[in-house]
Design brief:
The complex is a heterotrimer.
Chain A lengths: L6 E4 L18 H14 L6 E5 L7 H4 L3 E4 L5 H11 L4 E7 H7 L1 H9 L5 E6 L2 E2 L5 E2 L18 H4 L5 H6 L4 E8 L3 H19 L4 E7 L3 H4 L3 H15 L3 E5 H4 L4
Parallel strand pairs in A: 2-3, 2-4, 4-5, 5-9, 8-9
Antiparallel strand pairs in A: 6-7, 8-10
Helix pairs in contact in A: 1-8, 3-5, 4-5
Chain B lengths: L2 E4 L9 H5 L6 E6 L5 E4 L13 H5 L5 E5 L9
Antiparallel strand pairs in B: 1-4, 2-3
Chain C lengths: L1 E2 L4 E4 H11 L4 E4 L7 H12 L3 E4 L3 H13 L4 E5 L1 H17 L4 E6 L15 H5 L10 E3 L4 H18 L3 E6 H5 L1 E4 L2 E2 L23 E2 L8 H16 L5 E4 L6 E4 L2 H16 L4 E6 L1 E3 L3 H9 L3 E6 L5 H9 L5 E5 L8 H13 L2
Parallel strand pairs in C: 3-4, 3-5, 5-6, 6-8, 7-8, 13-14, 13-16, 16-17
Antiparallel strand pairs in C: 1-10, 2-9, 7-15, 12-14
Helix pairs in contact in C: 1-2, 1-6, 3-4, 9-12, 10-11
Classes of the chains: A alpha/beta, B alpha+beta, C alpha/beta.
Chain lengths: ~260, ~80, ~350
């Protein structure tokens, strides 16, 4: 009797292709993919989406999202997305980048795409490490965090401080929305979705550049269990990378 | 009553779902899937405690959980 | 085509820019560097009027990657630069070759190595014809020698890049880019901006999604992709352009391309007036290299002298073309010097006398 009234209240979005991912257990890329896919559906832009993938673990995003895609060289996704949008102004264009890709080799491209106010969105997954290449130090690696290229732990005097990208992006004139969320809890995941929605809407409403940073776990390269890695986000990452909205022109009521 | 269905061949045994369940009914099973991961499960009788809140599905990185919910009778079944 | 009667007096750089607009180029991505600045300057004003987008990129690296993005959408797009900037673009050029993305890249070659100077040179021949970046690939390389040819070949470059789904390079130099001369602009007819774009990114609307990439990790996939590219490069071999001047009864054929080819033509004219039996062979496509017609000349028993504005690069291709029957002498003009016809007449006479 009750089963007659039963409703499917959670299922995978259709924009995510039904296949296993190559990600390690406890890696948050899968959550980020789902949020992006749900929003593409909710904003009704799946058919007009042009995705730019970057280099790193998330390069294979194009195997998981059911949208047209082009693969950018390492760090260049915002430049490639600029070209895509220049060519097809009527399409929805977004790039998906990791922290090594975006905050190190691609620093120039992300800053200038944001500063020009390109009508694109960038989803930035920050897990404080180069994942695909085996866990080397990233520009976001925390002070004291051990990696394969800072085996004694990142040293402030030697390697400098981890870079807070969202704060930098928020300071640029072309940015319409910049927010940092985390994927470590249900509450934070819900907030992350709100932020990605805002970043996407900035393009659809022709307001400017949309940027969302997502704090994520990399259990394999952190050499932690998935549960310990997930806890590390709240314990170590959020204190240094504060969550929140750093710029939102929709709240200010204007265009950037 | 509500329930979840875990697609065992997709589960990587990360157990993030076990940490967010308000009724703590999701646990690690003794079964390994084809990929060698020890999958999560809800032991049979515990399923009736499921609230259908979708927390487990929201945090699952592998989209391995479907959630079904039955509206409570006193709210009027649709 | 419709030849418009009026002649205009423009720099070679502007001829390239006008040719691009005539060819329906809709996106231009550039970065300032001498001696090609007139191209982005002209297009910054004219591209928006033509309904396209001009972006001054933050770097050559970014400009080339913007080009990659626009090309992936099947749009006619271009970037231009000069030698040091072209080095920076090589990353994206390799990716575009690997991903089979059409794009036009203009190099107004300046002196090198390093920062070199801002004068003309041909030091980028190897870089242009051997791919230039990492991996094994080729660009189709067109080498104009006059303003008119720059205009014409720019229009042709857009057809070729879509025909082969391969980046095309226009290789000029500071002489071509900076010299003003008369050209007759013309408008190609029947440009179809949509035909043959069934691979390009338009959004997966009522069709399977499309993916443009150069990463091939699956067993055998990269070998298959390289086989595909090899087949394409083989197909390209049928597309060669060259100019022969006074070669019929020539004892000595001067091989030179681009601006040096043009100066060599003057030298040949002057030497002919003195009764010297010399001719000129000027490759217009540097890749594919016009090996067959060159070999035909070699089989007639002619001798060869290659003259370049570098230390000897194209001479390798000349020698490869004729290796079974002849060889080529080489005379360099060192980058940093601006050659005049007399600089070429000297080595030609010396070569003739050394018979």
């Amino acid at each position: 009797m009750s089963e007659m009234n039963e409703k499917l209240v959670f299922d995978r979005p259709q924009a995510v292709i039904d296949r296993p991912t190559h990600y390690c257990p406890g890696c948050h890329h899968g959550v980020a993919h789902r949020l992006v896919a749900e929003l593409l559906e909710e904003l009704d832009v799946v058919e007009k989406t042009l995705l730019v993938t970057s280099i790193g673990c998330s390069v294979f995003l194009y195997n998981y999202l059911n949208v047209d895609a082009v693969e950018a060289p390492h760090g260049r996704a915002p430049a490639v997305a600029t070209g895509v949008k220049a060519a097809r102004n009527d399409k929805f264009v977004f790039a998906y980048q990791g922290d090594g890709d975006l905050a190190s080799i691609g620093m120039a491209e992300i800053l200038h795409a944001a500063n020009r106010g390109e009508r694109i969105a960038v989803v930035f997954v920050n897990n404080t490490v180069y994942g695909m290449t085996g866990g080397q130090m990233a520009p976001t690696t925390l002070i004291g965090q051990k990696t394969t290229t800072c085996p004694e732990g990142r040293c402030l005097e030697r390697e400098g401080a981890p870079i807070r990208m969202t704060e930098i992006i928020a300071g640029l004139g072309g940015t319409a929305f910049a927010g940092r969320a985390s994927l470590d809890s249900v509450k934070n995941i819900r907030t992350a979705k709100k932020y990605i929605r805002k970043a996407f809407q900035c393009q659809l409403e022709d307001r400017g550049f949309g940027f969302v940073e997502l704090l994520s776990a990399c259990p394999t390269n952190w050499k932690m269990t998935p549960l310990k890695a997930n806890e590390r986000i709240a314990d170590a990452m959020i204190p240094y990378f504060p969550l929140g909205v750093f710029k939102d022109v929709t709240e200010e009521g204007g265009e950037c | 009553m509500s329930r979840i269905v875990i697609q065992e061949d997709r589960c990587k045994g990360c157990l993030l779902c076990t940490t967010v369940c308000p009724t703590q009914i999701i646990v690690q099973s003794d079964r390994f899937n084809q990929s060698g991961y020890k999958v999560a499960e809800v032991p049979g009788p515990d399923m009736e405690k499921c609230l259908g809140c979708t927390s487990c599905a929201l945090i699952c990185p592998d989209l391995a959980i479907k959630v079904y919910k039955t509206p409570k009778k006193n709210k009027g079944a649709a | 085509m419709t030849k418009q009667p009026e002649r205009i007096f423009v720099k070679g750089n502007e001829a390239v820019a006008r040719g691009a607009l005539a060819a329906h180029c809709k996106c231009f991505f550039g970065y300032p560097i001498t001696p090609q600045n007139e191209i982005p300057e002209f297009l910054s004003a004219e591209m928006p009027k033509a309904g396209g987008r001009f972006v001054q990129a933050e770097s050559e690296v970014a400009a080339a990657n913007m080009l990659l993005g626009a090309g992936a959408c099947g749009i006619r797009a271009m970037t231009s630069s000069s030698s040091p900037g072209i080095s920076l673009k090589q990353e994206a050029i390799s990716y575009m070759a690997g991903s089979e993305i059409p794009a036009v890249i203009v190099n107004m070659n300046r002196g090198g190595p390093g920062l070199g100077d801002i004068g003309p040179a041909q030091g980028d021949y190897y870089q242009s014809t051997r791919g230039g970046g990492h991996g094994d690939y080729r660009l189709l390389v067109l080498a104009p020698s006059t303003g008119q040819e720059a205009y014409d070949l720019t229009i042709k470059a857009f057809d070729l890049t879509f025909k082969y789904r391969n980046p095309v390079m226009i290789l000029g130099d500071a002489i071509l880019g900076q010299m003003k001369e008369a050209i007759i602009p013309w408008q190609p007819e029947n440009i179809d901006d949509e035909a043959g774009r069934d691979w390009s990114l338009t959004g997966a609307d009522k069709r399977e999604k499309r993916l443009i990439k150069s990463l091939f990790l699956e067993e055998g996939a990269l070998a298959e992709q390289n086989r595909t590219l090899q087949t394409k490069y083989d197909d390209m071999q049928s597309y060669v352009e060259y100019e022969e001047f006074e070669t019929e009864d020539a004892e000595l054929v001067v091989c030179a391309y681009g601006s040096i080819g043009r100066i060599a033509k003057s030298a040949v004219r002057s030497l002919r007036a003195q009764g010297k039996k010399v001719g000129l062979f000027r490759p217009i496509t540097l890749y594919p290299f016009p090996s067959e017609p060159l070999l035909a000349l070699a089989r007639q028993g002619k001798r060869f002298l290659t003259i370049e504005h570098n230390l000897g690069q194209m001479v390798d291709d000349v020698r490869l073309a004729i290796r079974t029957v002849a060889d080529s002498e080489f005379a360099p003009i060192f980058p940093g010097n601006l050659p005049v016809p007399e600089d070429i007449e000297g080595p030609v006479l010396k070569c003739l006398e050394g018979k």
